Queue: 2 jobs
Job 1
Amino acid sequence: MSPVIRQFRDFFVSLKLTVVLLSFSIVLIFWATLAQVKLGIWGVQEKFFHAFFVLVKIPGIAIPLPVFPGGYSLGGLLLFNLIAAHAYRFRLEWQKAGIQLTHLGLILLLLGELLTSLLQVESNMRIEEGAKQHYSESYRSNELAILDTTSPDYNEVVTIPEAVLGDSGVIQHPKLPFQIRLRDYHPNAALQMRDQAPHTAPAPALGRVEGFASAGIGPRLVVIPQPITYRQDERNAPAANIEFVGTEGSLGTWLVSPLLEMPQKFEHQGRTWEIALRFKRYYHPFALTLLDFSHDKYPGTEIPKNFSSRIRLKTDDGRDDREVLIYMNNPLRYAGLTFYQASFEKGDRVSILQVVRNPGWVLPYVSCVLMGLGLLIQFGIHLTGFVRQRAQT
Amino acid sequence: MSPLLLTCAAVLTLLLVGGCRDREITAYRAPKDPAAIAPVPAGTTNTGDLPPDHLPIGASAPTATGAGAMANTAVPTGSDHLTWTAPAHWTAKPVGAMRKGSYAVKGDGVEADLSITAFPGDTGGLLANLNRWRGQISLPPLAENQLDAHREHLDLGSLHVDIVGFAGTTNGAPTRILGAIVPLGGETWFFKLMGPATLVAQEKPVFLEFLRTVRPR
């Protein structure tokens, strides 16, 4: 083995690296806890934990600089360190079974967190009593949806994630008979009627104006860019100006924002189109109908005792058609999704279910069992050894 | 391939899959939405000349997607750096997302509206904003050199306030605007009393007294 490779090996299997990484993790968690006051839980997760480096803006320098390893770096290195140390020092001995099981549990826990952070999708489904719902919506992600609503039975939908809207490029999709030009984009913006807003540039004359809406409701509105919010109880409301260009030239530029709660319509080549910037939707191959929502209170008080939703679950292919009761701590698990009773609105007539897809949900349970078992075995071995020794003396 | 390399490859693939998921353009066929369920807006705001079936803009942002106790959307305007005490006879109205304060000022069977708003930056400058207000009561815009003749300056502790008063008409009815513009920490706050000319003129001393209660938080 060459000296360089040996140095690498010794570095990655060393316990010193573990201690340093754990110390860094403590600092990171402490720093992130303090930062949560300003950034909120989502912001902290993105900036400190779901990042390879913590980026900080330093006065006088335009771009943010990496100043500390982030969660992915520390977690990844810890995982690598743990696996490398085990691969290097592994001996198949009964005496070490406890330690090995405990560490296997730890590896699974780290992998589980990685899987969750990368693959977990959380959304919510809002259903009014008697209504049928096919989709759930993201809490924070948005998408530009372009719908061909010509058919009376269904919509043909093309969705563009918000992350793409900031690119200011041109999108040509095979399902769309026009090009989409992304004119401008604000990650968070308020809208106000132009005649009631503080002074801004005057309304553009009708016709296409670069970057300004010329069709739909856009020309009558002013976009007031706002700082991005990370607060847990707030959402960013992005705004974008989107131009459609057909074979015969521009069809117009539309202002889109989730604050415009109704889609804007236009006709092109004999088909009816709708455009909306909305919370990202996840369609499911089944529908839930809210039969009844109950909000029980303790008698004579306003203190809630129980929330429950009686749901009819029906798959599109008709294979499943049954009633389900969802209440606190009794979620519905179906098709890889978990539906929790989360909230309600509108005088107890609307139920809000939290919908979670987490392919790695079982890993933390398995890892806890492994770690518990490992510790039990390890202490058991020590205990029996100790008892035996005592009996001999 | 060693187990170590396999693990690294798996972790990298996961990271790539996770990273690319957010940028994928998708196309699918979806069932039609049921008739929209309109959430009740949190406060009254500017409906302006929106189509009759459109929900108010600038009201509480979309609650349609799971509001309740979970994730109410609020679009931040300015911060909440100022406090004030309104006179007893002003009736507080619900504030929408755009207003920091909203009051109905009543007298002689008529009503004026007092709005308090805050926006980041200087929102186009003092002159532009005064001309916007003048436009609302059918007055011609002022030129830069006429600005000083139309404003009074008031220093309230650390706050520097520009006060203006304009008399014009809306739809032929005599209307007055009394306004105060307060720059504060990178934001601009607007206090605006607008309504029937006689009522607003009558309320002017109260409005000025009210401004003296405005304090940084």
Job 2
Amino acid sequence: MEVLNNYGIVLAVLGAVLAALVSGVGSARGVSMGGVAGAGVITEDPSKFGKVLILQLLPGTQGIYGLLIAFITLSQIGVIGGGAEEISFAKGLCYLGACLPMAIVGYTSAIRQANASVASIGVIAKKPEQFGKAMIFPAMVETYAILALLISILAVIGVGGLNI
Amino acid sequence: MALLNMQRIYIYALKKDRKKLLELLQRRGVVETRNMIKEDAVFKKSDTQAAKAVFERNIASAQEALEILDTYSPEKKSLLSSFKGRSEVSCEVYDAFRDKYDTTVDIANQIIRLSRSIAESKAEQLKYRTQAEVLAPWVSLDIPLDYKGTKHTAGFIGCLPKAWDLEALYASLCDFMPVHIEIISAIKDQTCIFAVCSRDKADGVYAALRGMDFSYPSISADEPPAVQLQNLKEQIKETEDAIIKAQDEIGALAGKREELKFLYDYETMRLEKYEVLGNLLQSKNLFIVSGFIPEKDAASLAGELSEKFGAFVETEAPRKKDEVPVLYRNNAFSAPLESVVNSYSPPGRGESDPTMVMSLFYYMLFGLMFSDTGYGLILALACGIGLLLFRKTMEQSMKKNLLMFMYCGIATVFWGIMFASYFGDLPDVISTKFFGNEQIPVIPPVMFFPVEKPMLMLTFSMAIGIIHLFAGLGMKAYLLIRQKDFKSLLYDVVFWYGLLVSGIIVLLSMEMLTSMLQISVTIPAPVRNVAKYVAIICALGIILTNGRESRQPFKRILKGLYALYGISGYLSDVLSYSRLLALGLATGVIASVINKMAAMLPGPIPFFIVVIIGHSLNFGINVLGAYVHTNRLQFVEFFGKFYEGGGKLFTPFGIHTKYFKVKEKMKNGSIE
């Protein structure tokens, strides 16, 4: 068990990295899907750039949430900002688990949200005045990324206070 | 709540005044025309299709001409010009345009013609260039390409695939000597040759050459290639000149840009007028305009029309079946949010305007999600300065948008102070990095740090959510009271209020929940017991009444049970407000990350570069997130409780131009 405890910090860092990495990959794919669809609209009507850009950026937030979780975790375990303490195997595992909602939901929701965004960009191409409604559809998907972010934040902060 | 009352209006006037009267109506822009009277034997509509087609064509050519002008002599536009709005012109300028009308149409057509001739010249140029390319390998040949020989000799000019040398060529034609062969040019996959033989051997030579895949050149001419190439070059030069000339001519017409814009607007206005004209009912001497008018404008318009044209004006209240158009009336605080309501849907029949109530929450929710004093200040200042600089010429819609974001910015400043976020923790970072101050935080929060007490912040967010949802339910109550539907008020609102409030009281009396939410409330036991019974009674009430559209008792109870299940909807609605925490934290934590990264760099200059770039990015992303999610909370959680929309905005017959505003002379506050 003593040997395993050396790996606590590894698991915690792994969790932080996964949160930024996996949701970042998802957001990158999502934003690129939006960009491809948006570029098509812009060739027809460059004046729609502003609206299309907003829709394209919507799936980009998951990557930022992932970054957020990664940062909170890294500063909790003292990798950033100093004050590193001994992290037991169990605690490391807790951190890893706490990061997973953001990593997994972030990835999936970014891509699903991009699907909705692409469809909404199609709406903008035909009916630019319906921007408000078109924006809501992708925003609905984001709810679940936000819920995952919430749980990950609460869990990471909570695990910091655990005495295991 | 805040919608203007509409009235039906009928205007009866003499046909001789038709043009003047319609122009006046268009300038006033207070009547939305509708067909309210049916055609009969006396009153008929007239056909304006032909006239409208002319206007549409002119609009299209003005637009095309303007686009062409933009390509060949682009207009200089500053970055801020989109705030500026349309320029104003007076009625006199408008009336004077009639004299310039024909010449402007001609100018538009001339520009289009010129651009077409440019396109044609370019196509021609391309053709010449391709020909020149084909000729290039033959340039050293000094006889025409269609040379076939003399009386006694036969000549062959053409290409062989692949590279050949002279020896190999002679070898393959050795049976037909005497033959003279010249290689004009040779590249890797093509050899251009000229061969001469005596005429009686011509067929044999040709057959042998065919065997080597000989082909004649694809271009033929009766002049030597060099001469021909020279001709082509001259032709290319000619087209080049033609293009430049046409471009110059277009450039010279760039000064007419304003007139073309005016033509566009002028024809747009005329098109709108003729559309109305086409819907008018007309008899031999009379015509009737029918439509909707805001009640406040009705009397003055009626007075003016009867005074100027002797028209007879009749107004009446809208009928039950009418789809009355919607025109908002809000104070300066709420009015900026009308566009947000419109992007959901304007209020439908029997609904009231939710803008006012929404504005109480909108700015606050935005501020909570953006929640940084520095960012809020930048947002509010940027919008404020924009409003100040262009206050005279700015379009109404742009003004409202800027106002909305300015209020949002102010709310953001408020919440930023509450949670002590100033570009994240920038004051702390600067004071420790540059002044060696160890005492942080420099500025303590008025409420608390959300990062330190996330659970408390979550509770706070949900509490705001509950207030928001209750306000939505309250709006429903208001609507039902206005419709005097007191049964529904009791069944759909009072029962739900009772259930929710007592449910919350019961939940709060559980120690597990309060400790989790990090709040301390003590609910006295009697209150808790009463709450329990109220909750049960209300739940029963909901089960019994909420399925009341079904007559069959069993089905009715089932539907009631399903309605009670809607309480899970309230739960998810409240949880949805956790985004206030999540987005607020996202702003603050990312800002801190930026500050921390900047603090790792040595020296103040790299520090401030990272701070400025990083915070601009964070600002952009979060202002977008806050805007989108505030809208979502309003549209889904809040509107879901009481609002359907589906109305139609008031679109009066008026002046809907793109480039110019026609200014009316103002006298004593009323339009002259």
